[in-house]
Structures are given as C-alpha cells and as structure tokens.
C-alpha cells in the first residue's frame, strides 16, 4: 500500500489523498479536549454522517485503488510468493494494531482484538487475494452481493433472545454475533464498531476502490477518467442516499447505504484531485499530503505513540493537551476551537518525523 517507487502508474493525487486522509484521522482521533469538540469532528453516535465518519471508508477506498495499481502487473506471476507477501503484510499490520491497543499499560486481561489497523489488515488480505483471482465483473458482483446480503441480514434476522429485528446499539444481530464470537474487550462494552459482521461491508468498500483503480488503468484519456470517477461517484452516493431511507447510513454498523455514500464521496474526491493535480498540474499545497502518504501507516502509528507524551503523561496537575486548551480558552476563545487548534498542532508534531523519513527517502512498508 505504501510503495513510493516513482513508477509511471503512480498517481500523485492518490498519494496526496492518502496522506491528507491520515492527517485527518490523526486530527479527529486526538482533539485537544474530549469534552470540547465540534460536532462534525466527532463520529455520529448512531445514524447519520459527519466529516469524521468519512475518514475510515475513504482510507479503505484508497487501499482498494492501491491494490489494483500494485498488483495489476503481477497477475501472471506465481501466486504462491504473492500470497505469502500479502499474508505477511496483513499479519504485520494486524500485529501493530494489537500493539497500539495495548498502550499504555499492556493490560492483557482487558485486550481488544479489533480496531482501525485490524480492519485494514483483514480487508487488505481478502481484497488482494480476491484481486489476484477474479476479474472486475466478479469483484463488482461480490461487492453487490455482500451489500444486499448484509442489508437482508440486519433487517430480517431477529436478534436471538429478543425475538425481533433490531437496529439499535448493542441489540442488533451484528452486536449479538460479536457478543457470541468476538474475543476480548469490545469498544462499547457489548458491541464493537469494527466487529465481525460489519467487516464484510468494509470489504465491499475496498472493492469499490479496486474498481476505481481498474478505471484508472483503462485506455481512456485523463479527462475521461476524471469524468468517470466524478459521475460514477455521484451516482453511487445518490444510490446510497436513497437506500438510506430504508437502511440508514451508519458507520458503527457500516451499513450498505454507508458504503455507497462514502465510496461515492471518495470516488468524487479522487476524480477532483486527479483532475487538479495529475491533469492540470496544480501541486501547490499538496506536499504535506504526499509526505504523510509516503509513510501513511507509520504516521498513524506514530500518532498513537506520541500521544503518550502529549495526551497521557501528566505535566503538573494535568496533561499537556488540557493545559493548552485551558490556556487558549482563558483568552476568550471557544473551547471547541481551542481543542481543534491543539489537534492541528498535534498533526504538525506528527508531520516532523514523517518529513524526516521522506527527506531521507525512507519508506517503511509494513
């Protein structure tokens, strides 16, 4: 997924999109103060969509595009070696996710086995193998099948012990499956947003990225590719909106409508960036995104590690982030703005090691 090789198939727009997505992920994960956050910088509590809800599916979409661009020239290569590399990479990403879940106290008795990196590892493993063994029509059929079956499962199967179909937190069929089969701690006590059933539609999200990557390899003009991404993205998001009327957009359940709306957004964003950056050559301001994107997973991991210093370790009577937000708020600034400014400051702190790695041409591939 991180292959700064400079090959002709590499898209500067995709690199920038990946990097800015990681920067946004760090920003929303680490507000200056959890009690003071603008609503759109929080995940929705249940149904609905905020800016924050768009970040994870956008990254999975990018993973899908990257799979197509990275493996399209390897379809005729011996599959055994490719499978080993894919499996090892997935295992490493999953292991790093487990390490981050254990921070800061390494309490094995209260360990969570799911998370952002865990989901990335799983969908990368599944989708990379899928790409090597299917064509785009089969991939589209699998994605559609996943979304329809997931919709039917959540809206027709009664929750055992309750006896009726439920879509509310902790009592839906997805939560029940996690309660029965998911080991370890769950993020919300009796349910987990990165649980077992919701991983299936997240695979569909990544497949939409694979299909977008396939489009980028077609013998079309650059403008045609951009127009296709924008048009198909709009149509997909519109379809997701209408599906939302009977199956609500919900990141926690990763509903089928959520997949279509967010994949549509990601496709339109890629189409717009491709037009502006790769076609028109407008590269002003994209350097931070390219630098973050060159070591995207590394930057994400460093965010969690550096948070120990800025958000966990006490400085006097409180943590550094709370001191900063309190100081800014005392000047009359809205505490939510102060919290966001500290989050942006923390993104800049994370940019420093990312920049040093990029400057030394060090690209860490998990």
Q: Give the termini distance in whole angstroms.
A: 9 Å
Helix count, DSSP H or I runs of 4 or more residues: 13
Q: Main beta sheet: strand number and arrangement? A: 2 strands, antiparallel
Strand-pairing-aware structural class:
mainly alpha
Which stretches are low in confidence, meaning pLDDT under 50 for 5 or more residues running? Answer: 1-8
Oligomer: single chain
Mean pLDDT: 94
- The dominant shape is globular
Write down the domain tally: 1
Q: How large is the share of residues in beta strands?
A: under 5%
Output the strand order for the largest sheet: 1-2
H-E string: HHHHHHHHHHHEEHH
- The tally of beta strands, per DSSP, is 2
Q: Report the helical percentage.
A: 55-70%
From the alpha-carbon coordinates, what is the Rg to the nearest angstrom?
21 Å
Word description of this protein:
It contains 13 helices and two strands; from the N terminus they run H-H-H-H-H-H-H-H-H-H-H-E-E-H-H. The chain is mostly helical. The chain has one domain. Strands 1-2 form a two-stranded antiparallel ribbon. Strand 1 and strand 2 (318-319) form a beta hairpin. Helix 2 runs parallel beside helix 4 (116-133), helix 2 crosses helix 7 (196-216) and helix 4 (116-133) packs across helix 7 (196-216). The termini are close together.
